[in-house]
Amino acid sequence: MASTTPTDHKVPHISTVPANAGQNVRLHVREYDGTPSGPNAQRKVVLMLHGRSVPSAVAFDLQHDGGKYSWAQHLAKAGFDVFLMELTGSGLSPRPEMDKPCNANPQHQEILDPNPLTYTCTPPYPHELGNSESEWGEVDAVVEYIKAKKGVTKVALVGQSAAAFVFGPYAIQHPGKVESLLLLAPIYPPAGRASAPPKSFGAPVASFPVSTPASLFGFPMNLSSRTGLESAWDKEVRSPKQRAAGMVDAVWKELMAVDPVGKAWGGPTAGSPEGVLRFRNSYWWGWNQDTVPIGGVLGDQVPVMIVYGEHDATANSPTFSVPAFYDAVPGVRKLMFRVSCAGHSMVWERQSKVLHRLSKQWLKHGKVDDLEKGSFYVDEDGAYTDTL
C-alpha cells in the first residue's frame, strides 16, 4: 500500500556549480514509496524535476486540500515509487551565493526595498549560478542513487516547464538509464542557444554539444513576489472553473514554508516582510531543433509523452513552441495531449485530474487508453480528438 508519508533523502554529490565547485553537497530528494510489496512485485521508479522557479516540493506535492493536487502522491497511490529532486538553487537543496540580497537580478531589487534592502547594489558574485552541464550532473547523481537504492536499471523521468532543458538532453545522452520521458508544458526554443566546441561529459551521444561557456548574466538569483505569481497565473486563467478559489494563497504559503530566507524578504512596509520566491539563474544550452533529433533517441529508445494546457502562453510564444517540440522528436513512440481549460500551472488547476490520469496510464502501459502515438485534444469531458 502506498505511503502518504514522504521520506527525505540527501543525495551526495561533488558539485560542478561554479559557486561551490568541488564541494561535497547534499541534493534534496523526497520519496513516496508506492510500489506494491511482495516477491512478485514489479518496482517502477519515477523521478520528477521542477521547472525554472517553483521547487518540486510545491510543484508536485502541494498539500492544499488534503493533497488533492499532489501529483507525486497520486502516482504513488497508483503503485509507483516516486522521487522528487531539487537542483542546486531550488527548494531544500544547497543555495550557494543566494543568501545575499544583492545577488538578485538588479531588475528585481525593487522587490527587496525596504525588506531587507534600502539601497541598490551590484551583485558581489557576478555570475549565473548553474548551467546545463552542472544540472545534467546533478540529475545523473540522483539517478545513480535511485538505481542503487531501489535495484532498478532505468528510471522514468517526469519534468515540468524548464525541466525540459535538463531532462531532454539528459535522456538523449543516457538512454540506457531512462525508461521514458514525460514533459508537462515543456519549454522548447527551436532556435535555442548552441554551445561552444564539445568536451567530454561521461559518455555523451556522438555530436552532442557539451561545454561550459563563460558567464553572461551577472547574477546567480532571480526573485518573484506573490503579486508576480498571481499576475502571471491570472493571464492564463480564462474561466472561474479553471482554478479553485484561494489557490494563489495556498501555493504561496507552501513556497514560503520551504524557504525561510526568502520568507523574510520583500513587501512594501519596513519590518513587515511578505516573502519572495528565490530561484536560480542558470545558463542553458543544447536544447533546440538541432539537438532533439540527435541519435534518434527520443521517440525510439526513450518514448516521449507531452501534456500542455490550451491556454498556456508561457510554453507557447514567439520564442517557445510545444507543438514544434513534438514535431522535432525523431521517433514514432510519441504522444501529445493539449488539455482544455488549463494553462501553464495545470498542476494546481482543476484539470490536474486529467494530468494525473494521463500520466498514470502512460507510466504503467506506455500508452493512454488505446493511444500509442499521435497528437490529441482532451476536452472537458475527457474525450480525445485527433489533432493531426
From TrEMBL:
SUPFAM superfamilies: alpha/beta-Hydrolases. InterPro entries: AB_hydrolase_1 (IPR000073), AB_hydrolase_fold (IPR029058), AB_hydrolase_sf (IPR050266). Pfam families: Abhydrolase_1. Keywords: Hydrolase. Residues 45-350 form the AB hydrolase-1 domain. It comes from Streptomyces nojiriensis. The keyword Amino-acid biosynthesis does not apply. The keyword Hydrolase applies. This is Alpha/beta hydrolase. One of its GO terms (molecular function) is hydrolase activity. Residues 1-23 are annotated as: Disordered.
